[in-house]
Amino acid sequence: MIDVDVAIVGAGPVGLTCANLLGAAGVSCLVIEQQVGTSAHPRAQTIDDESLRTLQSFGLAQRFLASTLTADGSAYMDGNGECFARIGPGPRNFGFAKRNYMLQQQLDAQLLENLAQYSSVQLRFGTRLESFAQDHDAVALKITDRTGQRDIRA
After folding, report:
1. pTM of the full predicted structure?
2. Collapsed DSSP state (helix, strand, coil) of residue 146
3. I need a labelling partner for 95 at 20 to 30 A (CA). Which of 72, 74, 138, 148 fits?
């Protein structure tokens, strides 16, 4: 039985960011990811100023910012090729550009690398969540990895 304060299912940008926030706070957590690594196929291409401030809270913003490009804005086209909306670069109210182009693979890699400093965070890639159940005290999870099935309490 593995006991942790928090179980995170999924090692995408959100799961890895949560693990970094929890690790920085000293909260024990387990990240469970079915794939053997982070995603090779990005689902995000921009990061905004609020997300960069979140990365800043655990010391990753400046390093990650070096791999981004400030976005000038976007144009949205309908099926006829007519532009129906434009969004400009936006203000720089709190230290970071409002919109920044990025490669999700770089973000995932840096989030994962940053987790190495937190002894309270465990990573389980190649692990499948089989089931979970919640009672008034905790969530019980059953996971399967290459060594077999394990029980988690979070």
Report:
1. 0.89
2. coil
3. 74
